[in-house]
Amino acid sequence: MYSVLSQCDTSLQALRLCLEHSRGRAGLTALNTILHSLIPLMRLPESCGNEIRIETNPHRNNIVDDNEYNSEDDDGEQESVLGSFNQTKQVLISSDQLRIIVSSCIGFIVVAAQATIDNFPQSDNEKIQKKLELIDLFERKLCLSSSTKQDVQWTFNQSQGIALLIPLKHTPKILINSETIQSGFCERLGQFIKQLSIHENSVICQIGYRCIGCFVGYLTENHEVNYNPKLLLELLGKGFEHPVIDVRLLSTVISSHIAWRVKLPIPSWLCTFLIKLLSGIKDKNSAVRLGSETALAVLCRLNAPKNKDQNPNSEYLQACYDLLDNNTRNQLETLIQQRLRKQNWSEVWRQGCPDMDNTI
């Protein structure tokens, strides 16, 4: 007998896969209907003490309350017919699990809608307008620009973060472009990511940092998008100083992700990023130090395969030097000569760009 939890999980995972691989075949009306049906589930409370009790008896599969069904006569009547096969099992559905899967589905609705709009036989201006309408709906339904209220559960913040991380990772161009910059959406998005990153709950905090990695990484390889993510880089720098070691380690992984995606010419605002990496090398934790060194080696393309980029690797190193003042440049030169060049980075290049989170 399949558990109800397994069935719910399977159905939502199937929906997620359908959305992820729709490739423009999903209609906007259908996506809109799914979105509105899933939004309320983002506010499911924390699982502790809030599980949904469900009976998995094949003859009685309704959702029941602990005190709602208590008929001994009816149980006896069924047992006389079904014998020992009449065994009612109760399964507790984790509201956390449902909420997380639902939130990822909401994120993939944006991904699917983007693909659908791109397939429209309409002019570019009409497509842009459709995408702006989609972003406006996404922002309103997820309450991204609303000020955080004291009574908002941390679980809803987690749902918001997951739903945002999906399109930032899979189709960032719909969120970050000249139109959304001009409308002020990117600025509001940065402020929301800040709220995630400074959240007292470490789980939500780490989602915020992953959003930073996707946002900044996209900008470093798409120079036609003219936006300075100063706020996000400052937040990433604070990640290297975070009291929770997992956040500091994640900051180094995110930095490597960004460094991998950098393309010449390196934007001037990446100077802040480079300086933060140099500070990470001074961390007391050896794993954080190694992570910072790895990100620097990738950014400077040390011992990188010749076919990794159309530009010579030496141009990346020179571009990094050009971003810095004399004192900081001397610090980087010393580090490279005395430590980084003496290490073999072949395994780093073999593994490729860090995913930051292989579950989303």
TrEMBL record:
It comes from the Eukaryota. Pfam families: HEAT_GCN1_C_2. Gene3D superfamilies: Leucine-rich Repeat Variant. This is HEAT repeat-containing protein 6. It comes from Schistosoma curassoni. The lineage of its organism: Eukaryota, Metazoa, Spiralia, Lophotrochozoa, Platyhelminthes.
